């Protein structure tokens, strides 16, 4: 198992600690997420690696309670009660010359950055899958009036955790191969 250092309240954890202790959080308090915190999460997302000359992503920050309440109708994985105070819809811009798979990889990296940044800032978050399920893709595209060249990839719900699951050591030696299978 890994060791988590004791940190003073309010300090930001280091990258390895964030990776090793992050868990999906699906229960939030009703406390809102500050706009500057949402901006920090989006800035972290945009630091993700991507292929090509243009980033493959667009984001929709959602804090309108009426819109947040409508999301579970298009995604069974986003049925969080009460609705989270914030969600970020990560979308792939397919208008660039790179192919869909490369754009999706960049959006996956951006989504992971949101999750890690949220955890480092003391928030809870969960990645709810949209792509490649055609019904969810269509549902989110319609709900958010996305252009045809924009693919809804993932929805990250965010908030101040009502409960935080403990870290789990997922390292498995049987999944590691040295130099060949």
Automatic annotation (TrEMBL):
It comes from the Archaea. Residues 19-71, 93-160 form the Nitroreductase domain. CDD domains: nitroreductase. Keywords: Flavoprotein, FMN, Oxidoreductase. InterPro entries: Nitroreductase (IPR029479), Nitroreductase-like (IPR000415), Nitroreductase/BluB (IPR050627). One of its GO terms (molecular function) is oxidoreductase activity. The keyword Nucleotide-binding does not apply. SUPFAM superfamilies: FMN-dependent nitroreductase-like (SSF55469). PANTHER family: IODOTYROSINE DEIODINASE 1 (PTHR23026:SF90), NADPH NITROREDUCTASE (PTHR23026). This is Nitroreductase. It comes from Methanoculleus thermophilus.
């Amino acid at each position: 198992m890994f060791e988590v250092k004791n940190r003073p309240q309010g300090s930001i954890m280091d990258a390895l600690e964030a990776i090793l202790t992050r868990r999906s959080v699906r229960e939030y308090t009703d406390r809102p997420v500050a706009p500057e915190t949402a901006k920090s999460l989006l800035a972290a997302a945009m630091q993700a690696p991507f292929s090509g000359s243009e980033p493959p992503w667009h984001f929709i920050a959602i804090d309108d309670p009426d819109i947040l309440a409508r999301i579970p109708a298009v995604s069974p994985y986003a049925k969080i009660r009460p609705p989270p105070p914030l969600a970020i819809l990560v979308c792939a811009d397919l208008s660039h010359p790179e192919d869909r798979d490369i754009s999706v990889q960049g959006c996956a990296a951006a989504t992971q950055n949101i999750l890690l940044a949220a955890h480092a800032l003391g928030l809870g978050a969960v990645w709810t899958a949209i792509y490649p399920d055609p019904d969810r893709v269509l549902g989110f595209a319609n709900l958010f009036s996305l252009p045809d060249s924009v693919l809804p990839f993932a929805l990250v719900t965010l908030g101040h955790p009502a409960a935080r699951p403990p870290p789990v050591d997922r390292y498995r030696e049987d999944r590691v191969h040295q130099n060949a299978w």
